[in-house]
Amino acid sequence: MEYSIYLFRHGQTYFNESHRFTGWKDSKLTKQGIKEAKKVALKLKNKKFQVAYQTRLSRSKDTLKNVLKYHPECKKIITDDRMIERSYGNLEGKFHSTIIKKYGKKQFDELHRSYNITPPKGENIKQVEKRVLSFIKDLIKYIKKNKVNVAISAHGNSMRPFRRYFEKLTIKQMTALENPWDDYFEYKVKV
């Protein structure tokens, strides 16, 4: 037997639209973000899942709400912040252009995407990967025990280690990923 994981990113937020570091700040979906959430919902319409995961942030919850409109079979929603966006610490809320002007493009790129470099009071991708791998380990156990398909409303940076795990990517491939706001990834778990 095989069970499916349907992984998708929340729709565009106001901070995404204005090129700001969002992290753990609760930025709402834009009109475009709502359209993207509806697009994911339509793409998942004919799939079946019994459990859905979200984070505490409204962009994850609101995207999932759109998806769940087509899934009366989903009786359980679990909030798990191990799949939350990467914390950008002191950079949260700041415009990308401000950081580029202050530190230069090279340092911006390192702060934004480096595996090991940590923004002040934030997390690096390696730290995000550690908590996401903990989530995946528990998720696989849960799927095997309960024999369920699951949907996960995640974030761009938490999806990177998730995809690295299931797609067998290198660190370089993972950090270069751009996760879409209007599509999903399906992974199989053998039971």
Topology:
Elements: E1 2-9, H1 14-17, H2 31-44, E2 51-54, H3 58-68, E3 76-79, H4 96-103, H5 105-113, H6 125-146, E4 150-154, H7 156-167, H8 171-176, E5 184-190
Parallel strand pairs: 1-4, 2-3, 2-4
Antiparallel strand pairs: 1-5
Helix pairs in contact: 2-3, 4-5, 6-7
Plain-language structure description:
With about 190 residues, this protein is α/β, with parallel strands linked by helices. The chain has a single domain (about 1-20, about 25-90, about 125-190), classed as Rossmann fold. It has 8 helices and 5 strands; from the N terminus they run βααβαβαααβααβ. The chain has helices spanning about 15, 30-45, 60-70, 95-105, 105-115, 125-145, 155-165, 170-175; strands at about 1-10, 50-55, 75-80, 150-155, 185-190. A 5-stranded mixed β-sheet has the order 3-2-4-1-5. Helix 2 (about 30-45) crosses helix 3, helix 4 (about 95-105) crosses helix 5 and helix 6 (about 125-145) packs across helix 7. The longest helix is centred in the last third of the chain and has 22 residues, at about 125-145. It is globular. The model has no long low-confidence stretch (mean pLDDT about 95).
